[in-house]
């Protein structure tokens, strides 16, 4: 499988695309005005403790106070390590208003919700994640080869002992560590120890709300987190970012130094695979399938629903085979759309009904297999009695639509407008209300062109009856700046 990473850097925005076999699979965006906060460590101030929710709001200097649940708080003992409590502890014994606390952002602010915080601090490097306040040694569940897992755990334990780091925090072995040598793990351990020492110095010196540690910029995080043996090229279109990435790769992943390339083509780098067109498609509700079927994707506050339709596809065999072929194609397309759109939380998939249990198993296997490539953690249930597949996908940052779009100022996010007919009837009711209160002989209706046209045409007889009923002359004026739903009835 051929994979590439394309990186487009401008002064205000960085965009990164992960390409597999010529197709966009994931898109990452970071804007200077609203870059993500996940992984950043802050000295924050508790502004409100809520015993009923077992949570607190913490001011870390962002627009909205961030949320810290008691489950994400671990008391720190005299040795500087987390104290693991057997029983849940009352949040009022852990925090009080005005208290300064060191926290890390676990989830970015999304919609109207503030950032989600934790006191379980972690610092990532290429192969390891350092947990400075917990002596635990762990390993990524995505590393499935038991022999390699055992080798890495033994190797890490030996490195920790060699560096005399017992009781000085713990480590989690990342998926990227597969095949790593002792020298590479030692280099990561030393780097992370220096990094934590710098963070500790800032903690000890600080008395006010401030950033203690900020994660790497997007293009360096991507190199750290996304590079796998399957990545054949990393193309960057800016000399400065190219130099930084080359230096990072030279220090941490020297085997990849020949795969980093400065793109100097005349066409914009994202034009190579039509990525801007793919992004535009990912903002729409409908996704066309090659078979003629389609997906309808609706994202709401509570969950995302995806409906599979056969559309124009009739198939050359029987109905069951037609449904199976469409559902199999849809399963692969759904996994790709979840990654491109970065949809998270609860996701409900409504495949076309299948009576054959073997067909159901085939579709679930295809979906699960396609989701294995996803960098976000996913969990999939079986097909329910209603024929639905329920799944979750870990959400740590805003979806593509939330980053690139805002609610429509006309419909305010409903996705629908009241019809001109509906607005005409609202205007009639408003005319009656105003006529009963005021003695004026004339009223003026201000509305959009389409509404005024309907009032004077299809609704003209109703309008004539209304003038007789109220005893008032009604005039109309088109307001070009009014939306279809806007109108005013004023005295004339």
Description of the molecule:
With about 500 residues, this protein is of the alpha+beta class. The protein has twelve helices and 24 strands. The strands form five sheets. Strands 4, 5, 6, 7, 8 and 13 form a six-stranded antiparallel beta sheet that branches. Strands 16-17-18-19-21-20 form a six-stranded mixed beta sheet, with helices on one face. A five-stranded mixed beta sheet has the order 3-2-1-14-15, sandwiched between helices. A hairpin with an 8-residue loop joins strand 7 and strand 8. Helix 2 packs across helix 3 (about 180-205), helix 7 (about 320-340) runs parallel beside helix 8 (about 355-370) and helix 10 packs across helix 11 (about 450-455). The longest helix is centred in the middle third of the chain and has 24 residues, at about 180-205.
Please supply descriptive tags for the structure shown above:
492 residues; alpha+beta; 6-stranded antiparallel sheet; 6-stranded mixed sheet
């Amino acid at each position: 499988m051929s994979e590439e990473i394309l990186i487009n850097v401008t002064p205000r925005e960085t965009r990164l695309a992960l390409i597999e076999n010529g197709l966009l699979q994931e898109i990452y965006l970071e804007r200077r005005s609203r870059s993500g906060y996940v992984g950043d460590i802050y000295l924050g101030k508790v502004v409100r403790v809520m015993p009923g929710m077992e949570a607190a709001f913490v001011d870390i200097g962002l627009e909205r106070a961030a949320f810290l649940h008691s489950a994400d708080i671990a008391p720190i003992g005299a040795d500087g390590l987390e104290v693991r409590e057997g029983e849940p502890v009352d949040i009022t014994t852990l925090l009080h208003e005005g208290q300064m606390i060191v926290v890390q952002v676990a989830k970015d602010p999304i919609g109207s919700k503030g950032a989600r915080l934790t006191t379980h601090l972690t610092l990532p490097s290429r192969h390891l994640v350092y947990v400075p306040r917990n002596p635990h040694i762990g390993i990524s569940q995505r590393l499935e080869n038991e022999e390699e897992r055992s080798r890495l755990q033994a190797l890490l334990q030996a490195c920790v002992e060699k560096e005399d780091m017992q009781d000085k925090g713990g480590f989690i072995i990342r998926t990227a560590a597969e095949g790593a040598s002792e020298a590479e793990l030692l280099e990561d351990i030393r780097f992370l120890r220096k990094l934590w020492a710098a963070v500790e110095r800032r903690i000890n010196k600080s008395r006010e709300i401030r950033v203690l540690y900020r994660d790497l910029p997007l293009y360096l995080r991507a190199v750290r987190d996304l590079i796998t043996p399957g990545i054949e090229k990393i193309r960057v279109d800016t000399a400065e970012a190219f130099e930084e990435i080359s230096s990072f790769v030279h220090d941490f992943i020297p085997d990849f130094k020949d795969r980093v390339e400065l793109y100097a083509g005349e066409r914009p780098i994202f034009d190579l695979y039509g990525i801007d067109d793919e992004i535009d498609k990912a903002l729409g509700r409908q996704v066309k399938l090659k078979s003629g079927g389609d997906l309808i994707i609706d994202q709401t506050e509570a969950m995302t629903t995806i409906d599979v339709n056969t559309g124009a596809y009739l198939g050359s065999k029987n109905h069951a085979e037609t449904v199976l072929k469409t559902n199999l194609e849809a399963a692969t397309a759904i996994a790709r759309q979840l990654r491109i759109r970065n949809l998270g939380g609860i996701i409900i998939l409504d495949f076309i009904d299948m009576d054959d249990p073997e067909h159901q198993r085939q579709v679930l296997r295809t979906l699960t297999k396609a989701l294995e490539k996803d960098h976000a953690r996913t969990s999939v249930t079986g097909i329910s009695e209603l024929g639905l597949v329920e799944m979750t996908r870990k959400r740590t940052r805003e979806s593509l639509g939330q980053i690139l779009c805002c609610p429509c100022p006309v419909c305010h996010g409903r996705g629908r407008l009241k019809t001109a007919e509906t607005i005409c009837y609202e205007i009639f009711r408003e005319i009656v209300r105003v006529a009963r209160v005021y003695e004026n002989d004339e009223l003026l209706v201000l509305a959009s062109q389409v509404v005024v046209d309907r009032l004077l045409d299809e609704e003209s007889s109703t309008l004539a009856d209304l003038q007789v009923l109220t005893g008032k002359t009604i005039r109309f004026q088109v307001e070009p700046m009014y939306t279809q739903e806007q109108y005013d009835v004023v005295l004339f």
